[in-house]
C-alpha cells in the first residue's frame, strides 16, 4: 500500500459526509442568527449595487455615443449614480464584514471551548491512548477551518451565486436568450469541472492532514521525552522518523499544488471560451443594429464582473473542501463517546463520615485479562489502611476505581453506603484528594500548582499548605519564590520536590478521603521522614488509603492489606502480619536487608 493510500485509509473523513459536517456546524451559528440575516441582507444589497453599475455604465456610454445624438449631452445624473452605486457596493460589503465578524469569531470560540471541554469529559482510557500532538494539531486546524468555511461561504460562494442570479435575470429580460444560455452553460461546465477535479485532488489533502498530524505528534513526543532521547542517543533516529513523515507530507503537498495548477489552466480555458463567444454575439448584435455600444459595454462588464470572481471558484471550492476535511476531524473528536458517564439526574455524593468500602470488586481493562478478583475491604471513617504488594498486583488500580476513572466489572465501591456509580463524578472527586506516584505539574508558578486544588484560595492558605508539606523553605530559597515557574510537566523540580508540591496541593484541598499512591517513592530517607510526619498530620480525622512500596512508611497503619495477582491474600496490622510469616514478612525482611546494605555502603 502506498503512503498516500495508507494515510487516506486512516482518515476519518470517509466516515462523515460534507453535509453532515455542515449540519454539525449549525448549532454554533444559531445563537448568531440575527447577525447572519443582517450580514446576508448587506451582501444582497452590495451585489445589487455592483450589478447595477454596468446598467448605469450603459446609459453613460449611450449618452455619449455621437452616432445616436447630434449634440453630446453630459449624463451628469448617471455619472453621479455610477459613483453612488460604487460607494454603496463597497459600503454594504464592509457592513457585511463588520456584522459577520462576531459570528465568525464567536463560532470559533464556541467550537474551541466545546472540543476542549469534551476532551476533558472523555475517560482515562482514551487519554492513555491519545496522541497529544495529533489532537492539538487537529484542534488547531479544525477551529481555524470554521473561520475559513464561513469566510468562503459568506464572502465568496454566496456573492457569486447572488451575482450570477441577478445577471441572469437581466440578460433573460433584456437580451436574446442565447446570452443567458451561453453564460449558464459556461458556468455549469466550469462548476462541474471544478467539483470533479477537486474531489479527485482531496486524497492529497487527506494525506497531508494525516502526515501533518503524525509529524506534530512525533515532534511533541520526542520533546516531552527529551531526557529519554538523550539517554539513548537517539536524536538522529527521532529526526529520521520525523523527516520520513514530513517526506510524505511534502510529496502530497507538491501533488496537491501541481494538480491545482492544472485545474486553474482548465478553468481559464472554459472562461476564455465562454467570454469569447459572448463577445462575438454582442459585437454581431452591434453590427446588425440590434444592440447599442452601451449594450456591448454592459454585456462585457457583466461577463468580467461575473467571471473574475468565478475564476477563483476553483480555489475557493478547494479550500472549502479542505476546511470541511479539517472540521471533519474535529467533529470526529467531539463524537468520541465518554466511557464513564453519570446516570441521568445523578445526585450529589453526600459525605458525612467518609467510610470507604470495596464490596466484592472485580475489574478488568480487557475481558481476557482480569486485574482484580473479589476485592473486599473497608476503611472506616478516620482510619488509615495501607495496600502493599509486588508490582503488578493491582494496587494503583484501586485508586483509579475510587476516582471512577474506570467502572468496576463486578461488585461495588461505596462511600458512606452510596454506590459511586450512582452519584455525579464531579461531587465524587470533590471529596477525594490524591498524592500520585508520578506527579505532573502545570508549566506555571509553584503558587499556581499548589493553589490548583482550590483556585479561590488565598496566598496565606497556599503558604500554610506548603509549610505542612515541608516545602516552604525550599520555595523561599528560589530566586522567584512562589512565582517560580516549574517548567513543562514540572521538569525544573526534582521528583521529591514535585511530590511535596503534590502533598501541599492535597493538603489545601482538604478532602474527606485521602489517597497516597507511593507518595514518598522519590524521596530520600530524611525527606521521607518529614513527609511521613506531614502525611500523619494530614491523615488525622481523614479516611486514608496508602498505597506503598516501602513497608516502613505504613507500619503505623490501622490495617494493612497485602495484594498479589489482583487478590488480597493477607490483612492485619504490622505486628499481626509479621507473626503470620507470609508474604508481608518476606517483603519486610528483604527491605530491611536492602536498607542495611545501603547503610553499610554509605558508611564506607
Pick out its properties.
ABC transporter transmembrane region fold; 6-stranded mixed beta sheet; 604 residues; Rossmann fold; disordered N terminus; 4-stranded antiparallel beta sheet; alpha/beta
CA radius of gyration: 36 Å
Name the CATH superfamily assignment of the largest domain: ABC transporter type 1, transmembrane domain
* Main β sheet profile: 6 strands, mixed
Total strand segments: 10
How is the CATH topology of the largest domain named?
A: ABC transporter transmembrane region fold
Task: Report the principal-axis shape.
Answer: elongated
Please name the CATH architecture of the largest domain: Up-down Bundle
Number of helices: 20
Order of helical and strand elements: HHHHHHHHHHHEEEHEEHEHHHHEHEEEHH
**Which class of the largest domain in CATH terms?**
Mainly Alpha
Range of strand content = 5-15%
Q: Show unreliable segments.
A: 1-15
Number of folding domains?
3
Strand order of the largest sheet: 6-7-8-3-9-10
Distance between the termini: 63 Å
Structural class: alpha/beta
Mean pLDDT: 82
Q: Into which percent range does the helicity of residues fall?
A: 55-70%
